[in-house]
Amino acid sequence: MSVGLLSTIAAVFYGGTVSVLALTATFARRRALRLEARSTLALLVPGRSQEPQR
After folding, report:
1. CB 25 within 8 A of CB 41
2. Tens of pLDDT along 14-54?
């Protein structure tokens, strides 16, 4: 496999993971699940700070 194909596969996988986490962090019914998705999203997306818990 070429490097370009591997990079494309990795980018699609990363984008899909971030998208699912963003949707979960926004629309999950359980508060604990939303908070867990937000903390995982904060690890994957550089420069995004986690909001203080209320």
Report:
1. yes
2. 999 999 999 999 999 999 999 999 999 888 888 756 565 56
Could you tell me which of 50, 42, 53 has the C-alpha nearest to residue 18?
Answer: 42
Alpha-helix residue ranges (DSSP H) falling in 1-54: 3-27, 31-44
Residue 52 phi, psi dihedral angles, 5° rounding: -65, 140
The pLDDT score that the predictor gives to residue 50 is 57
Domain boundaries, the chain: 3-43
- Residue 46 gets which letter from DSSP? T
What would the two tokens of residue 54 be? 């209320």
